[in-house]
Design a protein that fits this description.
About 35% of the residues lie in helices and about 20% in strands. The protein is an alpha/beta fold and about 500 residues long.
Amino acid sequence: MGKNELHIVGIDAAPLWIINRLSKKFGLEGFQSIMHNGKLGNLESTLPPMTGAAWPSIYTGMPPSKHGLMDFFTISRDYEKQLVYFDESIAEPFWKTLSKQGKKSLVITPAMVVRPIEDPNVDMVTGFPLPSKFSSDKIKKEATKYGFLGEPDIEKDIKDGSMPLEEASMRFSESIKKRAELSKSLIKKGNYNLSFTCFTETDRLQHFALSRNDWEALVYPLYKEISDFIWWLINNTGAKRSERSIMIVSDHGAQPIYNKFLINSWLINKGYAKFKENIGDVALTYGAREKLMSSKALRKIYDKMPKTAKSLTRKMISSSGVRVKEGTYSRMHDFDLDMGNTQAFASISNDPVSMIWINDNRFSEPAVKQGEKAILKKELILGLKGLKTEKGEKLINKVIDGKAYYGSTNMFIAPDLLIEARKGYTIDVFNYSPERIFMKPEPAKSGDHIREGIFGFMSPNGKFLTDARRVKSVLDIRNMVLKVLSKD
């Protein structure tokens, strides 16, 4: 065994306010031990504060502009959303760096890592959002023994009402417990320098629960299982206490959501974006279109189509989803917009921090010339900053220049503006109303993200604790891991 041993617990969407509240009310021993004997504080996430961008930044120490994930999707020159996952050949995760130093790692369900690493020094079970895969038959056999073959895929059942949240809470907490038992077993057997176990069930439940009166009863069982796992790591791992450090990290936080700002409604109603003209008999009904788009079999066929056939298919299914009666809402898509007459549009990030693209020559149907872009951007910023809630309060906390945040990245077409809504609001890029820019959130948006996640650290080594107090951002985590497990 190396001189030092580090055990990392990743918790998706864990904010300090939830941990403080549940610890005070229920006495979560693992979290309390970190609070009293080490450090537990806020951790700044990426913009937007999303799983897709933030976890790769934790693994690599790189911003989204370098590792290539600004969200779960990027947008192409032809305005198509493209699903992306973490690629270790582009940006090296800390477990790969440690392997080069001869150190052995156990990595269990790291979010956004969907392909098992081929490395004799790394045992892995891949993570959210795809089904779990295993780096070896030995790891799969152990996972089968503890009944963990991946997280439960139950969001659809929660959304359609066939599974009550009480049952979902139980299913998610059971999943956490099984994964924790798997990690314990492998840690005891594996002689690892590093273990990293990531739990994303917290985020998946909190999206449905946080604005409900009974949210504590729903969320607590998940944090209880994680706290118990932390307590075991503190007390029962193989290394001597003088060699053992514990780290807790989340990619972003969470908050209750009580209202949604329909950003594309605002852009369309202000004339910055325009819908296509009615394409008549070719158009499908809204319900038929959504059913067609959600078909996995048809998606596979579409992905294999040549570019011209894809364009004709998009034309066939466009425009029908935006014909709405007064006082109602409809789900819209990027292809509903007449891009040749659209100056700016919001896309991808349905989050309290959302994104706007100016439709310039980076895209196939530009409507804004380079000389017009700076003026348009200033006009958009001024309009966004002047927005008020239905109660007359300031709606937008911050408008961040995309160029300043992403730089001159060639990894994706970067948004021109990042917009952060006030507390309790999320920004919706999918829904449209001809006369409204606010709507009540659906159950799946009862909770949403905040930029502040958590960083916790406990170690008998005073130098490491000093270093830990300097950790402020997801970009600092990788260096902290390597310091603890350095050759010195």
